[in-house]
Amino acid sequence: MLILNRLIKFKMLALPTMTKLWKTTDANCKLVDYSVGQESSLVSAPNTPVMFWPDDKVCLPVTMWLIEKAQFYYSKAGKKGIRGNSSGTVITRASLITHFVKYVFNKNNKNFASLNDDHIGDWKKSLENEEDPKNPLIKRRKNTQIGRIMRAGLSFLIWYQKVMLPHNNLIGEEIGNQITIEFEGANKRGNSSKEASVNHRHIPNNNTPSKVFAIGHERITTLYDVLRETEANVDVRKRNECILKLLEASGGRRVEVSEVTLEDIALALSTGILRLQSAKSNEIEPRQVPVAKEWIEPISLYINTHRKKKVKELIKKGN
User: Fold this and answer.
1) Cα–Cα distances in Å, from 302 out to 57, 173, 181, 274?
2) Which end of the chain is more exposed for a tag (fewer CB within 10 A), N or C?
3) DSSP for 13-65?
4) Euclidean distance between CA atoms 276 and 139, whole angstroms
5) Tens digit of pLDDT for each residue in 218-272?
6) Helix or strand or coil: residue 120?
7) CA 192 – CA 152 distance, rounded (Å)
8) Distance separating the N- and C-terminal Cα atoms of the chain
9) What pTM does this model have?
10) Between vectors from CA 150 to CA 137 and to CA 174, what angle results, nearest 5°?
11) C-alpha to C-alpha distance for 35 and 215, rounded to whole angstroms
12) pLDDT 10s digits, 9-59
């Protein structure tokens, strides 16, 4: 077991912000190592994350968890074949668990022990709904990142129950637990050092865009040719060309493309992702379809020129 000897020595650096709730120890930090026999020894532990609550008080349980996660590397430092610096791995954990610390502080008064499945579901929604500060039109993180963050929080709770609670009904596979989880893969029996094996019903599925099967070249060429030959109205022809471009670029169905909004086009122009509401599933959330901006630029141009002019004319006529 490792015990922190000189935990908080930051050379008078400022306390963490609400975005980053942790600071790392300096080069003088030492840990007491009791892992070999009954004798203790000091091991160097620079760059060990110390977690804070948003009110600037040390979050001791999470800090202890982070230290234990670094134990293997610190105690084995200098041995052949063993990496002696755990700062990268542990700092990644600190970054992920920060979101959980914020949630428990804001919604459950710093109390890890009374959390339940409803809290996990509420936490997931807060992660999903957080907007990107640089672009309010898109969400801050995708499902893959939300899953990593939530698994880090669940992994911490498994450790917290084992080390710091007098009971075992906070989190586990049995129905009677406050938080019901399951373990996946080779690590099914619950080795909490592998967050990827911990699952919960509120953890979203990965949303890596699936392959798009666009309309065939011969068929789309025929449609373009027929449009030019049969439609005399310039405004209608330009509008229909935009519809064909969306069909070709996204591989979407007719009904899916017909429901694309101006906001969807603006988002696709800035991010390269087009939102399509699936026509053949019960999914509420739209699909995220990668689309090259070269396809979206002429559509955006049409919206802001020909369509904008036509809308003004219709409004002037009272339509």
Assistant:
1) 55, 55, 51, 17
2) C
3) PPPP-SS--EEE--TT-EEEE--STT--EEEE-TT-EEEB-TTS-B-HHHHHH
4) 16
5) 777 788 888 878 878 888 888 888 888 888 888 888 888 888 999 999 988 888 8
6) helix
7) 9
8) 76
9) 0.57
10) 140
11) 63
12) 333 344 555 568 989 888 787 777 666 666 777 777 777 889 999 999 999
Q: Which two tokens stand for residue 128?
A: 């999903």
Quote the CA–CA distance of 190 and 220 in Å, as a whole number: 53
Other CB atoms closer than 10 Å to residue 62's CB: what's the count? Answer: 28
Distances (CA, A) of 182 to 101, 119, 190: 22, 17, 8
User: Are residues 242 and 228 in contact, defined by beta-carbon separation less than 8 angstroms?
Assistant: no
Say if CB 183 and CB 190 are below 8 A apart. yes
Burial pattern 98-137, b for ≥16 Cβ within 10 A else e, equals bbbbbbbbeebeeebeebebebbeebbeebeeeeeeeeee
Q: Positive or negative, the Cα torsion across 198, 199, 200, 203?
A: positive
